[in-house]
Amino acid sequence: MSRRLSFYVHIPYCIKRCGYCDFNTYTPAELKGPDLLSVSSNYIAAAISEIGLASEAVGMVEVPSIFFGGGTPSLMPAHELAAVISEIRSKFSLLPDAEITIEVNPDSVTPEFLDEMRTAGANRISMGMQSAVPHVLQVLDRTHNPENVAQAVANARSAGFEHVSVDLIYGVPKETFADWQSSVQSALSLPIDHISAYALIVEKGTKLAAQISRGELELPPEDETAEKYRYADDQFVAAGFDWYELSNWSKPGGNCKHNIAYWDGSHWWGVGPGAHSYWNNRRWWNVKHPNTYMQKVSEGVLPVSSEENLTTENVADEYIMLQIRRKEGIPLDRLSKKQIDNCTEYLATGHLDEQCWQDGKLVLTQTGRLIADRIVRFLVM
User: Which pLDDT tens digit goes with each residue over 126-178?
Assistant: First the structure.
């Protein structure tokens, strides 16, 4: 078993909930507090306690990456996030070249925060850009001014961050093809080395789902959304980025090591409410509410809500579902004859890369990436 363990640290707070978001995050109003400081005052201490419990559970391991996600990590005082990095460094072997990522919101991240986090060892910023078009941001309930993205990226570079990524979302109601072109070009004008582009998923229970259900908003046609993916991929590649996962592109050396750990079957520990962990074919997830989470760890127990042990078959299926998303693809010798036979029609239709197939790997072409889920169903049926 690998003695490496990545850490995901969940910051479960936002000033406002975006209309499309179903992440495990909470606003001060939802937690019945007057402001963020009051509702989050004991949270980092609880996260540090869970890191101590993780140390007792797994022993000494090497840590190749830490990822602060949310929620909005950039709302927290930088010295508190720095304390989390220090705790991981003290309890484990944080590798000298470890990737340490902070997710930030363009409106709430300050130069001072960036300077402090860089001093603490953070070296990668992931920024929620989503769109460069105000009316698209409005549909998503995003609060930031699109003009602030460029300034925030410039501030991150000035602070010495080696890697900066922006996230985009396409397929949003009221987003025209020209709107998407504008967002892609705006992102490519920034001094970044990584870009993520995700098709909008309408999650049940969100404000956006209710608006669509009531007929107030309408999703664009699927073929238009597919065309937006193709346009983005072509533009990213022309600008020196290469895809390494269905929704992620990077310049050389800019890919996200932490996310690769999720896709390649490595181990990770999720700190915080609702966070998931994976270690030695066991997966578990924490209680969802921050207050319950803090109570559990204060009692010195792991805040686990539920868990599952993966069978050999589970592991094999997950390998296919995750590995097919990557540019490295799936070695054909990892597939059965039946699975290979099931895929030959996709080879004939150009959804699989023919040269890679000749080299013994199943790798999706651009059109294949658009129907990855359908191909997976053929492989794990």
Answer: 999 999 999 999 999 987 889 999 999 999 999 999 999 999 999 999 999 99
Residue 65 and residue 100: Cα distance in Å, rounded? 6
The residue behind tokens 């990226």 is 153
CB 225 within 8 A of CB 196: no
Measured distance CA(50)–CA(44) in Å, rounded: 10
Task: Give the angle 343-346-349 at the CA atoms, nearest 5°.
Answer: 155
Structure tokens at 15: 């000033």
Which burial class, exposed, middle or buried, applies to 358 when counting CB atoms under 10 A from its CB (0-12, 13-18, 19+)?
Answer: exposed
Strands 6-11, 268-271: pairing is: parallel
* Rounded CA separation 276/317 (Å): 19
* Distance separating alpha carbons of residues 135 and 199, to the nearest angstrom: 17
Which domains does the chain carry? Answer: 6-263 (3.20.20.70), 330-380 (no CATH)
The model's pTM: 0.96
pLDDT in tens, 53-64: 999 999 999 999
